[in-house]
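Tutorial, part two.
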Amino acid sequence: MRNELIIANNASTLPDLISDSDGVITDFSSAFHSYMHDVLGLKPIANEPRSFDYSDVYPSYDSPAKHIKDFINNPDYFGDIGIYPEALIALKKLHSAGVRITIVTSIGDSPDVMRARLDLYNRELTGVVDDVIFLPFCSEKSETLKTFSRSIFIDDLIGECVSATANGHDAFLFPRNYNRYASPSTGIKTLVNNWRSLPYFSQSI
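Running the prediction step on this input gives:
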């Protein structure tokens, strides 16, 4: 099948994978929109925002981003976040190929947030992810990335990819509407075809 993710022959010899979660593995936006609709009666005009603060998908509402922390601390909605189907397939294939997978997320490090997110990983990615590192809400990943040997790093924020490159990692920007105008620096690649653009997967299909 043309769209099938096929592991490259050399996948097991490549560096480990470090990945962001929200916007790369976990579908933050869909769950946030459910919260905004049920709690505030608001409907977005699109699922994925062009602006990271969601102002473009809630054009008639002032500062929708002010509700993000309330959403994250609401287990009924935050705990209902799903995993993107292609991410689920890709991570399972990478694990089967012997690739070590670490998730580094700045979604927050409170006990309730970590519990909800680990419940999701345990439910959907049992035995697939080797380690999860939680950082304070919206904090930078640079200091954490310094502790890892050269790895393949994925994030949907250009600043984190720049930081990863500076720390000796191979950085890949995951394409989203809100980073479509980002200009990747030298050494940063954009995953034009999402997960299948990673060097772990065959590019011959």
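The first strand starts at residue 17 and ends at 19. In part three we will examine how such features are distributed along the chain.
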